Amino acid sequence: MTKASPTVKSEAELRLHALFVRGLEGDAAAYRSFLQQLASHLRAFLARRLFGWPDEVEDLVQECLLAMHNQRHTYQPDQPLTAWVHAIARYKMIDLLRARAGREALHEPLDDELAVFAESANEASDARRDLAGLLATLPDRHRLPIVHTKLEGLSVAETARLTGMSESAVKVGVHRGLKALAQKIRKTR
Amino acid sequence: MNTDQWVALLAADPAPVRRRAVSRRLLLALATGLPLSFGWMMLEHGVRRDLIQAMFWPMFWVRLLFGAAIALAAFVIVQRLARPGVRVRGAWLGLAAPVVVIWVLALLALLSAPAEERAALVWGQTWRNCAIDIAVVSLPTFAALLWALKGLAPTRPALAGAAAGALAGGAAAWVYAFHCPELAAPYIAVWYLAGIALPVVAGALIGARWLRW
């Protein structure tokens, strides 16, 4: 861990790292800004590598964002963020390609991890996958905490009062619900 | 839902994340599984009656150390495989070292023994049960570790499952050493290793399917 990284850290790496670390500490504004910028980088990165399937790009961006959110506890601040983001994006892309056409469909080698922050594309095209629809298929104990705290912006306490769940059940519901959503996304391929 | 809405949803009220969550989770799994593994060994096999006396024999400690060293190296490897973008690097050597050492000790023991005693050094008295017993002792730890890995993010799920098997197997070899009457290095080099290999193979097979995320 003490070894210096072989390349100078990019400006994007430094900026995103700072935002992400604040987000991990619970700073919602920093975290949102991190996810927004991350989405742009992922879009550009994935679009170059999936140019056979332009329609898949936005779906995969959203899936990667969910994966990074769900697995954010596996990031340690002393690790290059580029490596972490690249590893997850690569894993999700290979997973998609396996489901579709197998590895040979890759047009470019996937090992160039520095490229993940090299470009950014802000123009979000429409996702084909209906996340709201998938969300609606979750059981109430998962769906209601997500809808109230995440979509309607209620606090955990308000959600607990509204749904009759305990506050810890609301927190667990959000956490498990987003994990269950990631599983559903994998199954809809 | 477009991506901006999706980002807003994910970013709303993010729960703070504890530092070193990966190591914590794996240690919690060990703290759950190891006592169960140890309890099973006590219940089913019991510690060897001459435990105090055995403590004066170097091979008793070599055997304990063998399991512990494998478990320690495997812990480092699992901990790295569970985090995307972290390379395992030198930790593989830590896993290979105890195996190489026990094999060197085994060869030395075999070469220095008279030819007619060599077979006994390998087969011992209990070879029929040893590997299976170690694998069974590893089960609670193995299950707890796989469960912990399920909540982490191994980008090479089969390898991560195998490493979890090595960790559970190494820990089980260490636990089983408190019972086992066999002390010959060739015996350990074959049967203990086989006992550890069983959860490794099981971990690779289970990991390839169940640990995907």
Amino-to-carboxy terminus distance of chain B: 22 Å
User: What is the SS-derived class of chain B?
Assistant: mainly alpha
Helix and strand run of chain B: HHHHHHHHH
Radius of gyration of chain B from CA coordinates: 20 Å
Residue runs with pLDDT of under 50 for 5 or more positions of chain A: 1-5
* Structure summary, number of beta strands of chain A: 0
Beta-strand share of residues of chain A: under 5%
Number of separate helices of chain A: 8
Query: What average pLDDT do the residues of chain B reach?
Result: 94
Contiguous uncertain segments of 5+ residues of chain B = none
Secondary-structure class of chain A = mainly alpha
CATH architecture of the largest domain in chain A: Orthogonal Bundle
Number of domains of chain B: 1
Shape of chain A: globular
Q: Give the helices and strands of chain A as they follow along the chain.
A: HHHHHHHH
Assembly context of the chains = heterodimer
Radius of gyration of chain A: 18 Å
Please give the share of residues in helix of chain B: over 70%
Report on this model:
- The complex is a heterodimer of chains A (189) and B (213).
- With 189 residues, chain A is mainly α.
- Chain A has helices spanning 11-24, 28-49, 56-70, 81-100, 131-136, 140-151, 156-163, 167-187.
- Chain A folds into 2 domains: 9-125, Rna Polymerase Sigma Factor, Chain: A (Orthogonal Bundle); 130-189, Arc Repressor Mutant, subunit A.
- Chain B has helices at 3-11, 21-44, 51-54, 58-81, 91-112, 118-123, 127-150, 157-176, 185-210.
- Chain B has one domain (20-210).
- In chain B, α4 runs antiparallel to α5.
- Chain B has 213 residues and is mostly helical.
- Chains A and B meet through α2, α3, α4, α6 and α8 of A and α1 of B.
Fold blueprint:
The complex is a heterodimer of chains A (about 190) and B (about 210).
Chain A lengths: L10 H14 L3 H22 L6 H15 L10 H20 L30 H6 L3 H12 L4 H8 L3 H21 L2
Chain B lengths: L2 H9 L9 H24 L6 H4 L3 H24 L9 H22 L5 H6 L3 H24 L6 H20 L8 H26 L3
Helix pairs in contact in B: 2-7, 2-8, 4-5, 4-8, 5-9, 7-8, 7-9, 8-9
